[in-house]
C-alpha cells in the first residue's frame, strides 16, 4: 500500500517562495476551500507534477513556474511503501528530479526517462493514467473512466489487477519468437546446404562408377555449362555495378538536403519561439495597466506602440514560417526522391550479392569437377571412401533435421504461450473473474448514492445500462449529475479492487469541485455518507466552493487565499 504523507511546493503556479505544505495522512476527511484563483486545486497539479513530471490540469510546463519570481519552482512529495520511506523532489529553473529512499538518493546515472520508469514501474507500480483514475476525480482536465478509449480502460484495469506483468511477458515472448524464427531459418539454410552436399556426393559416386571416358565427358559438359553461366553472371554484375554508380551519382546532394532540412527546422523553431515570446508580451501589456515591478502606470500610447510593434514582429515571423514551410516541403519531397533512389541502390546491391554468390558456388563446383576429372584420369578413386563421405554427410543432414524439429517444437510451445499472453488469453480470464465483483461494487455504490440503475461492464469494458423506466442505453445518455454518480461509483470500485489486490492501493483520494458542478443536494448528501464508510486508512480531500455548507461534514478544513499576489494556506 502507498501511504502518501505530505506534499509541499514553492514558486509553483501562484505560490511564492514561501512553501505551502499539506499533510496527506493527518485527517480522514479534509475540506479545501478558497475563492477562484486562490490556489485550491494547486495540490492536484503539485502531486501529479512531482510523481509524473506533468500537472493534472492542461498547463504547459513552462507556465508552472511562478511568473513573478520566475525561478526556484520546486515540489516535494513524501510517501511510504511497505515500510520504505520515499521522497520525490522535482523542480524547474533549475531542473531537478531526485528519488530518495530511506534517506539515500537512488542512482541518477540513467537518463531522465529511465529514472521516471524506475519511479513508475519499480516503486509506485502505476502510471499517470491509473493514478488519476484511482486517486483523483476532478472537474478540470480529468477524463472519467467511461470516457477513456477502450485501450486506456484496459491499461487502468491491468494496473489495478496487477496483471501488466503479462504484457511485459508477451513482449519478451515476441522477442523470443523472433529468435526462434531466425534460428529455424538458419538451420533450414544449413539443411539445404547439407542436402546439396549429399546430392553432390551422390552424383560424384555415380560419376565414378561410370566408364572413365563417359565420366570425363559428363564432367567436361558440366564445367562448360558452369563456365557459360559464370560468364553470363559476370556480365550481369558489370551491368548492375554501372547502374549502381549511376544511381549514386544522382544522389550526391543527399547530405546537403538533409542539412538544409535541419537548418530550416532550426530556423522555424527559433521563429516559433520568437512568436511565443511576442504573444506572451502582448498578453502582458493587454492585461496590465500597472507595471508589477515598479507599480507605475503604463501609458496607453506606450502600450499601443509596444503591442503594434509586437504584432508586426509576429506577422513578419509568421510570413517567414510560411516561406520556411514551403522550403521544407520542397526539401522533404527531394529527400523522399533521394530515399527512393537509395532503396533502388539497396535492391541493386542485393542483386549484386546474389550474382557474386552464384559465381562463387559455380567456381567451387568447377574446381571440384576439375579435381574429379583428374582423379578419374589417374584411376585412383576409391569408391568405398566416397561412400563413407556420403554417409557422414547424410548423418550431418539428419542431425540438422533433428535440430529443426526441436526448434519447431519450441516454436509450437511459443505459439501456445503467445495465445495465453495475448489480451484475449490469461488477462481476459483474470478480468472475467473480477468483472462480477467490479459490477457488483459499482451497482452497490450507485445504490448508496440513490442512483437506481443497473450498470455493467463487459470484458471489453463497454457499458450496459438499464433503468426501471428505460430500455438499454449508454453512459452518454445520462445527465451530468448522473454521470458524476457513475464516475464516483467506478472510482470507489477501483479503489476497493485495488485494496483487495493490494496493487495500487493508497490512502489518498482527491475530489476536485464535484459538489460544485453536477451533483445536486441529494447526491452530495449520499456521497458524504458514502465517503465516511471508506475506513480509517483513507485520507480524503475535497476541493469545493461550498465551504459554508460543508464545514461540519469534515474533520479538517484547509483554506487557501491570496496575499500580495501569492497563494498561501491561511
**Major sheet: order of its strands?**
2-1-4-5-6-7
Looking at how many chains there are and whether they match, the oligomeric state comes to single chain
Low-confidence stretches: none
* Portion in beta strands: 5-15%
Estimated helix fraction: 55-70%
* Count of discrete alpha- or pi-helical segments spanning 4 or more residues: 13
The tally of beta strands, per DSSP, is 14
Computed Rg: 37 Å
CATH topology description of the largest domain: Rossmann fold
Structural class: alpha/beta
Let me know the CATH homologous superfamily of the largest domain: P-loop containing nucleotide triphosphate hydrolases
Major sheet attributes: 6 strands, antiparallel
- 3D shape: elongated
Account of the protein in words:
This protein has 13 helices and 14 strands. Helices cover 59% and strands 14% of the residues. The chain has 570 residues and is of the alpha/beta class. It has a six-stranded antiparallel sheet with strand order 2-1-4-5-6-7, covered by helices on one side. It has a six-stranded mixed sheet with strand order 8-11-12-3-13-14. The longest helix is centred in the middle third of the chain and has 79 residues, at 300-378. The protein starts with a strand and ends with a strand. It has helices at 42-52, 112-124, 128-134, 150-160, 164-209, 212-249, 254-287, 300-378, 383-421, 426-448, 480-501, 521-531, 547-550, and strands at 2-10, 20-23, 29-33, 73-81, 84-92, 96-101, 104-105, 136-137, 453-457, 463-467, 508-512, 539-543, 556-563, 566-569. The chain is elongated. It folds into two domains: 2-149 and 479-569, 3-Layer(aba) Sandwich (Rossmann fold); 196-394, Orthogonal Bundle (Helix Hairpins). Helix 5 runs antiparallel to helix 9 and helix 7 runs antiparallel to helix 8.
Amino acid at each position: 500500500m502507498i501511504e502518501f504523507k505530505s506534499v509541499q511546493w514553492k514558486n509553483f503556479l501562484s505560490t511564492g517562495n514561501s512553501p505551502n505544505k499539506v499533510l496527506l495522512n493527518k485527517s480522514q476527511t479534509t475540506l479545501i476551500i478558497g475563492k477562484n484563483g486562490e490556489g485550491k486545486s494547486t495540490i492536484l497539479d503539485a502531486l501529479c507534477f512531482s510523481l509524473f513530471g506533468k500537472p493534472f490540469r492542461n498547463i504547459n510546463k513552462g507556465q508552472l513556474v511562478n511568473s513573478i519570481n520566475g525561478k526556484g519552482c520546486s515540489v516535494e512529495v513524501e510517501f511510504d511503501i511497505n515500510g520504505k520511506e520515499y521522497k520525490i523532489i522535482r523542480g524547474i529553473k533549475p531542473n531537478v528530479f531526485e528519488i530518495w529512499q530511506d534517506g539515500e538518493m537512488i542512482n541518477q546515472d540513467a537518463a531522465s526517462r529511465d529514472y521516471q520508469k524506475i519511479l513508475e514501474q519499480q516503486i509506485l507500480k502505476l502510471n499517470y493514467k491509473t493514478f488519476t483514475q484511482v486517486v483523483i476525480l476532478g472537474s478540470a482536465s480529468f477524463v472519467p473512466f467511461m470516457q477513456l478509449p477502450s485501450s486506456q480502460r484496459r491499461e487502468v484495469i491491468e494496473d489495478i489487477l496487477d496483471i501488466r506483468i503479462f504484457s511485459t511477458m508477451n513482449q519478451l515472448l515476441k522477442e523470443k519468437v523472433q529468435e526462434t524464427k531466425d534460428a529455424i531459418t538458419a538451420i533450414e539454410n544449413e539443411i539445404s546446404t547439407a542436402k546439396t552436399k549429399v546430392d553432390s556426393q551422390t552424383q560424384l559416386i555415380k560419376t565414378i562408377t561410370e566408364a572413365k571416358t563417359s565420366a570425363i565427358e559428363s564432367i567436361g559438359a558440366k564445367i562448360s555449362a558452369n563456365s557459360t553461366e559464370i560468364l553470363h553472371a559476370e556480365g550481369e554484375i558489370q551491368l548492375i555495378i554501372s547502374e549502381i554508380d549511376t544511381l549514386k551519382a544522382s544522389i550526391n546532394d543527399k547530405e546537403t538536403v538533409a542539412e538544409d532540412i535541419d537548418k530550416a527546422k532550426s530556423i522555424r523553431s527559433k521563429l516559433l519561439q520568437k512568436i511565443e515570446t511576442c504573444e506572451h508580451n502582448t498578453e502582458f501589456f493587454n492585461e496590465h495597466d500597472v507595471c508589477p515591478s515598479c507599480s507605475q502606470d503604463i501609458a496607453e500610447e506606450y502600450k499601443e506602440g509596444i503591442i503594434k510593434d509586437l504584432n508586426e514582429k509576429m506577422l513578419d515571423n509568421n510570413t517567414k514560417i510560411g516561406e520556411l514551410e514551403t522550403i521544407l516541403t520542397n526539401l522533404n519531397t527531394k529527400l523522399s526522391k533521394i530515399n527512393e533512389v537509395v532503396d533502388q541502390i539497396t535492391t541493386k546491391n542485393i542483386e549484386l550479392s546474389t550474382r557474386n554468390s552464384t559465381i562463387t558456388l559455380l567456381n567451387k563446383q568447377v574446381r571440384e569437377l576439375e579435381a574429379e576429372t583428374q582423379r578419374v584420369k589417374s584411376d585412383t578413386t576409391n569408391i568405398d571412401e566416397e561412400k563413407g563421405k556420403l554417409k557422414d554427410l547424410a548423418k550431418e543432414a539428419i542431425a540438422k533435421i533433428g535440430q529443426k524439429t526441436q526448434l519447431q517444437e519450441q516454436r509450437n510451445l511459443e505459439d501456445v504461450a503467445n495465445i495465453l499472453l495475448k489480451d484475449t488469453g490469461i488477462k481476459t480470464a483474470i478480468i472475467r473473474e473480477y468483472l462480477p465483483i467490479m459490477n457488483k461494487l459499482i451497482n452497490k455504490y450507485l445504490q448508496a448514492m440513490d442512483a437506481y440503475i443497473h450498470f455493467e461492464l463487459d470484458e471489453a469494458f463497454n457499458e450496459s445500462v438499464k433503468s426501471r423506466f428505460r430500455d438499454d442505453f449508454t453512459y452518454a445518455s445520462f445527465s451530468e449529475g448522473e454521470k458524476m454518480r457513475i464516475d464516483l461509483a467506478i472510482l470507489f470500485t477501483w479503489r476497493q479492487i485495488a485494496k483487495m489486490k493490494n496493487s495500487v492501493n493508497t490512502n489518498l483520494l482527491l475530489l476536485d469541485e464535484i459538489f460544485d458542478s453536477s451533483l445536486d443536494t441529494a447526491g452530495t448528501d449520499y456521497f458524504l455518507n458514502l465517503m465516511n464508510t471508506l475506513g480509517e486508512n483513507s485520507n480524503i480531500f475535497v476541493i469545493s466552493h461550498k465551504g459554508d455548507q460543508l464545514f461540519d461534514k469534515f474533520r479538517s478544513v484547509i483554506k487557501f487565499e491570496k496575499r500580495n499576489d501569492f497563494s498561501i494556506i491561511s
